[in-house]
Amino acid sequence: MSSIDQREYFAAKYQTIADLPGIGEATATKLSEIGYKTVQSLATASVRELVAAGLGEETADKAIKAARKSIAIEYITAQELVDIRKSLKMVTTGCNTLDRLLGGGLETRSITEFYGEFGSGKSQLCQQLAVSVQLPEEYGGLDAGALFIDTEHTFRPERVTQMALYLGLEPKDVLKKIIFAEAYSSEHQMILLENADGVIKENNIKVIIIDSMTGHFRSEYMGRELLAPRQQKLNQHMHKLIKLARVFNAAAVVTNQVSSTPDAYFSREPVPIGGHIMGHISHTRIYLRKGRNNLRIAKVVASPFLPEGETPLRITARGIEGDELDS
Ligand code: ADP
Ligand code: MG
Question: Partner of 51 at 20 to 30 A CA spacing, among 2, 62, 97, 282?
Answer without folding.
Answer: 282
